[in-house]
Structure formats: structure tokens, C-alpha cells
Write a structure and sequence with these properties.
6-stranded antiparallel β-sheet, 8-stranded mixed β-sheet, binds magnesium ion, alpha/beta, single chain, binds aspartic acid, Carbamate kinase, about 450 residues
């Protein structure tokens, strides 16, 4: 099948019957879409996560399960309550309830994954039925037969060779006569136990399915009309980008743009699958194509912002004209599995940035790491910094694109801010600054003004 397209619909796209109907329109208008991977309806996975927590009382548990039941029945009613779907839904709700009541749930990652899988199981059940009612020959396919993973519950690693093999034997034969509706996010290990690929993993699932089926297009349908030049919350001038290369999109994901699950592009890049990102609410408005080779390669494509950065500066006067200082510092960081983003050096010191997400309870820089470093150098830690990344092409020669080379507009936009660190040169696709978090949104806004308007 030459133009085989895998379409993924996110949680807001399948939130209710009306939203699902808009997705059905998209499928009915494009004969190439043969596989559809859905997320759980928006909000459902969050409710399921709450159910797995140890402080949920029996009353709250009942309320949460009722909330899920109400969401599902709202769709079922709009589908006119077909008996077989009602029975299947009741079976899923019964299984879900018994898992939610299992006293071992809060301490078992395996049981948690089993519970979290119900959101996707229910949405695919409903969506396949909705398509059938629209006259599409649709089957609801349990992706756990194909999406084989390791045992790392909650963050399972896909087993590519097995997935390919299972897709060939079980999924491919379904494609000739039907649209296959299936689940994102979930998989199973060698024992057949349910696993998940991590929160937001449905994009990644769809990309893996597209890779296994050798599809030519992967569509990611969400609630935004593609990838924007920057986060629209930072400036009203942000606008969708029609086309972006894999390299640029990967830089954007690394530096904080949250459109796709970060692993999504990896399978697409491996097999050169064109990826489209668009809004199922407004499919006619177009979206962004993420491709291997773009028609245009402008110097400035997007600006990303990543908050919660730590700047670590290590300094050792003994290292003047000595060797091995960098190796020693990085050795310690590697030993503690600390990933470094930006690096600058001077003769006797190194400054590097680390990501320190606020939603975790511990800092990336533990006392053990700090004392290991302090045993041979001075250490300074600065917080409340943000990383601003300008993403584009050939940024090393960006002055050519300015009308007055002596007045490079990019640097001009940074006139009035403290720039704590600058990195350019390792990749032609990015130029990064570290600035105080307070001024970062303003930096993005003024950069956007000069580079995109
Ligand atoms: N339903 C899962 C989540 O909310 C996976 C996804 O939507 O991508 O994380
Ligand atoms: Mg998502």
C-alpha cells in the first residue's frame, strides 16, 4: 500500500461524540488512512492515575469511576446504545473497577499499567463503532498483540523487531478491507502483561506502528493547528510553521517545545515517514509537515523556551595547562546519570546547564555529586535560569540574512537583557542563550518580533 497513512487522534480530538465525529470526517475524506490510533478521552488517564494513588478513599474511588462511566455513556448514548458495545463497555468497566479495588495497586507498577490502559481501550471501542455507523468498515484491534515491549512498566521500551514481525502477521492482513482502529500508549511484555510507553505516549505508539507497517505518512491530530514559531502564550505573533525538517523539529523538542512526545520523530526519521501535525477541530486550516528535506530552509524557524535550568560552574586553578579536567567533571556527572545540555569552557573553568524539572521532589544535583566535584574544584550553582533556543538553519552564517550586517538583529533583540551564557557552533540548527527566568518571556517576545515580523 503506497500512500498508507497512520492517523493518531489525541485526547481532546476524541473527547466526546462531536469531537470523534470530526475525526471520522477526516478519515472518510482520506482513503489512505487505514490505521487509526487513539488516545484516551481527555481527562480519563488523569482520573485513572488518581485511582492508582494510595490515599484514595472508597468514596472518592466510586466518584472517579462514576466520572469515567458518565463520559463513556455520554458517547454510548449518542451512538444509540448498540447492545454489543454496551456489553463490551460494561465488561471493561467491571475489570477496571476490580483493578481499582485491588489493595496492591498503589505499590505495583504492573497493576498501575493494567489500570491506565483502560482509557485507550474504551476510546477505541467507541471510535470504531462511530466509524461503523458512518458506513466505514472499521475493526477495533487490540494493539497489545503487536506493541511488544520490555518489562519496564510505566516507561516500557518497545521491541522493534518483534513489533515489526507482529505487525506483518497480525495487523497488515486487516488493512486490505478495513480501517483498523487501535490504541496508543499501551503495549504488552513477553508474558502478555499490559505495559505503557509513558504519559503522552500515544504519539510514539502511532509512529512505531507507522514504522512497522512501512507507512508513508503519519498524521498527529491534536487541538492546535500545527507547530508554532513559538509558544502562543508567550507572544500573540506566534504562528504555525508550514514545514520543518526532522533536524529542526528534534532541536525544538529538545529545547522545550511540547507538541509531540519527544520520541515520536525517531521512528519517523528511521524510515523517512512524513509527519503531519494538525487540529482535528480545524483540519482545513492546515498544519505543519515535519519532513526529512524541506522546500525552504530559513535561517530562523522557531524559538523555544525551557525553564528550570541550573547553571553549574566548576573552576580549578590547578588545571591551567593541565589535561583531563573536562573528562573528570563529565565522568562524575555520567556516574550519577546527569545529562548536560549546554557547555562553555574557559582555561580553568567549565560552565554547564542541567535541566531541573520542578515536578520532581529531588534536585538533579545531589549532595553526593556536589561533594565529589568539590573534592577537586570550586563549584558554583545558579538557579532561576531559562534556556532560550533559536532554531533554524545555518545559524553560523546568520549575519548574511540581515540587511545591515553590522547590526545583527538577533543580537540587537538581546540588547537589554542579562545573557548568562551563549552556545552556538555544535549544530547549525540552534543558537542558545541562558537568561534569568524573569526576563525569558520578554526575550522570546522581542526575538520573535525581530526575527519573524
Ligand atoms: N492517554 C495517555 C496520557 O494521557 C497517552 C496519550 O494520550 O498520549 O498520557
Ligand atoms: Mg497527548
Amino acid at each position: 500500500m503506497n500512500n498508507l497513512t497512520v492517523a493518531k487522534f489525541g485526547g481532546t480530538s476524541v473527547a466526546d461524540h462531536a469531537a470523534m465525529s470530526r475525526c471520522a470526517d477526516i478519515i472518510c475524506e482520506n482513503q489512505d488512512i487505514r490505521v487509526v490510533a487513539v488516545s484516551a478521552q481527555s481527562g480519563v488517564t488523569n482520573i485513572l492515575v488518581r485511582l492508582t494513588q494510595s490515599d484514595v478513599t472508597a468514596d472518592e474511588r466510586q466518584t472517579l469511576i462514576d466520572q469515567i462511566r458518565d463520559k463513556e455513556y455520554a458517547i454510548l448514548n449518542d451512538l444509540n446504545q448498540p447492545e454489543s458495545i454496551k456489553v463490551a463497555l460494561e465488561n471493561l468497566l467491571a475489570e477496571l473497577t476490580s483493578l481499582a479495588e485491588n489493595p496492591e495497586l498503589p505499590t505495583s507498577l504492573k497493576l498501575k499499567d493494567a489500570l491506565l490502559s483502560f482509557g485507550e481501550q474504551m476510546s477505541s471501542l467507541m471510535f470504531a463503532e462511530l466509524l461503523r455507523q458512518r458506513g466505514v468498515h472499521a475493526v477495533n484491534f487490540d494493539i497489545r498483540q503487536v506493541m511488544k515491549t520490555d518489562d519496564n512498566f510505566a516507561q516500557a521500551e518497545p521491541q522493534l523487531a518483534l513489533i515489526k514481525q507482529q505487525a506483518e502477521t497480525l495487523l497488515k492482513p486487516e488493512l486490505s478491507g478495513s480501517v483498523v482502529v487501535t490504541q496508543g500508549f499501551i503495549g504488552s511484555n513477553a508474558q502478555g502483561e499490559t505495559t505503557t510507553l509513558g504519559r503522552g505516549g500515544s504519539d510514539y505508539s502511532a509512529a512505531l506502528i507507522a514504522e512497522a507497517l512501512e507507512a508513508s505518512v503519519l498524521q498527529i491530530w491534536t487541538d492546535v493547528t500545527g507547530i508554532f514559531t513559538t509558544d502562543p502564550r508567550l507572544t500573540k505573533a506566534a504562528r504555525p510553521i508550514p514545514e520543518v525538517t526532522f533536524d529542526e523539529a528534534a532541536e525544538m523538542a529538545t529545547f522545550g517545545a511540547k507538541i509531540l512526545h519527544p520520541a515520536t520523530l525517531i521512528p519517523a526519521m528511521r524510515r523517512d515517514i512524513r509527519v503531519f501535525v494538525g487540529s482535528s477541530r480545524a483540519p482545513k486550516e492546515g498544519g505543519t509537515w515535519v519532513v526529512n528535506k524541506a522546500e525552504t530552509k530559513p535561517p530562523y524557524r522557531a524559538i523555544a523556551l525551557r525553564k528550570d535550568q541550573i547553571l553549574l560552574t566548576v573552576k580549578s586553578p590547578q588545571m591551567l595547562h593541565a589535561t583531563g579536567f573536562l573528562a573528570k567533571v563529565f565522568g562524575i556527572l555520567a556516574e550519577h546519570k546527569i545529562s548536560v545540555d549546554l557547555v562553555t569552557t574557559s582555561e580553568i573553568s567549565i560552565a554547564l546547564t542541567l535541566d531541573n524539572p520542578t515536578n520532581t521532589t529531588t534536585s538533579v544535583l545531589s549532595d553526593t555529586v556536589l561533594s565529589a566535584l568539590k573534592s577537586f574544584c570550586d563549584v558554583k550553582v545558579e538557579e532561576n535560569l531559562s534556556l532560550v533556543a533559536v532554531i533554524g538553519n545555518h545559524l553560523e552564517s546568520s549575519h548574511k540574512y540581515d540587511k545591515k550586517p553590522t547590526e545583527n538583529k538577533l543580537w540587537k533583540a538581546l540588547d537589554s537583557v542579562d545573557v548568562r551564557m551563549i552556545c552556538q557552533g555544535a549544530s547549525p540548527h540552534n543558537l542558545c542563550f541562558l537568561t534569568p527566568t524573569d526576563s525569558a518571556p520578554a526575550v522570546v517576545e522581542s526575538l520573535h518580533d525581530v526575527l519573524f515580523d
